[in-house]
Amino acid sequence: MVMFTVTRKETSPIDSQKPGTSGLRKKVTVFKQPNYLHNFVQATFNALPGEQVKGVTLVVSGDGRYFSKDAIQIIIKMAAANGVKRIWVGQNGLLSTPAVSCIIRERYAADGAKASGGFILTASHNPGGPHEDFGIKYNMGNGGPAPEAITDKIYANTKTIKEYFISEDLVDVDISVLGVSSFQGPEGTFEVEVFDSTTDYVKLMKSIFDFESLRKLLSSPKFTFCFDGLHGVAGPYAKRIFVEELSAHERSLLNCVPKEDFGGGHPDPNLTYAKELVARMGLGKEAPKDEPPEFGAAADGDADRNMILGKRFFVTPSDSVAIIAANAVQAIPYFSSGLKGVARSMPTSAALDVVARDLNLKFFEVPTGWKFFGNLMDAGLCSICGEESFGTGSDHIREKDGIWAVLAWLSIIAYRNKDSLDGRKLVSVEDIVRQHWATYGRHYYTRYDYENVDAGAAKDLMAHLVKLQASLPDVNKFIKGIRSDVSNIVQADEFEYKDPVDGSVSKHQGIRYFFEDGSRLVFRLSGTGSEGATIRLYIEQYEKDSSKIGRDSQKALATLVEVALKLSKMQEFTGRSAPTVIT
Ligand code: G6P
Ligand code: ZN
After folding, report:
1. Is the fold of 2-197 the same as that of 201-440?
2. pLDDT tens digit string along 286-316?
3. Which of 295, 469, 470, 537 is most buried by its number of CB atoms within 10 A?
4. Active site residues
């Protein structure tokens, strides 16, 4: 057996290693600084209880972005030196974020061991390449992101670090080849197993959805389908599930070969960045050459986000989770015995709230960040959850799940068409959404993002909005001066959350203004940007009147947008006359 030794290396703290909402995300050039990754990995090992490092199995993989392959070898060598027993790596270092969560929860080694956690190498939907972003985050034994107590400790460790441990003489493992490599170190054997990236995840999906009825839908000539992997890690899963298992045509897959730089694109599934899919679905500026497919979807770099489209039709993520919740029990076998509860992040529209009330379900509103859902799920309080930021998921794992969301939608379409696939016109995505609005009312919704704004200016804008909350009569006077037809603001606050499971309190989670007619404005600073500050403005208006639910959402929301921009003095503070992205 190949032997290795352990070397202790001296190091010193490097600034800027504070993990954000979803781990540490920085430019590749930052990660390539001497010791930058090493310090963070050692700080993570030191933050975990000893029994979660010594002798355990860990997963290490990610979305395949530039620098992943180097990072995997470094982490393997550091894990060996820190007494980890076994490392699991997806072939070529590829595992989607939901697949890592699934593997931590469901996979067993030959000796019966399970993984006690894992490093996910991704910067999610941020671009990749030598001059773009890299990222790393740690997930715990429940398959979910490390809680704040751990990430705070990691950060504190990075500020005092003096040494790290590495097995420099451990040869690089060929991660393109399936199999187990064994080594002998001072603390016994150490092994690296490279395995197929999709098998465990596919097995889980098959236990949740009725693949037989999905296959019937996807092979029906009436149903046309398109999936855009945006050159992220979703590609191999899409190929395996949609094409090999469910008989979709190979040509229904766009950009499904993972690339280190995502083909130069921005792997974020929204109307701005998923350009090719948007054009094909008939939602681009120009009419497409061919008749658009009935259904289109995309996932982000690490395949946890999703966008759902119908023919010439966009489903907002806030509507998507509400519609999945409303149909889950009938359409998805995993939920057939009922939902334990549902949850959404605070800025997500209240479409889900209305479904929860109607179905008499437990309902939770949590701060932005998937980890808050994880706690509810571990406590058996929540089955389905979602976020406006194109995240949807369920308690099958502890991450949001892009492919799962697509399968959930396909299941709803299959269920709605179960008796008519060979006969009448297809009940389309648009039909399903419009029927939902007719039943529950419609939440018009839009989000304005101001990216890479000066951090000081962003803080000042937020402080201004908090200050205004002290006197609502003055605010109302001001907004009536802008538009006399806008309804009164009746409540305003900063969102604060007390976790019902562990009692922890999260403050300053976004500034909210509530209007008398049920409309709402929310302002928050993003926790995921890697440069400057990103201000997000979320605008929502509820319409119950079924004769008014068919309007264009930007038109329906124009008044509220004007009020929001003037109230916040957006242009004065940021110097921006328009947002970077509107979704
Ligand atoms: C990540 C998190 C989500 C969050 C999203 C947007 O994807 O997993 O939970 O909603 O980032 O966060 P931001 O702070 O940028 O709005
Ligand atoms: Zn992601």
Report:
1. yes
2. 888 999 999 999 999 999 999 999 999 999 9
3. 295
4. 124
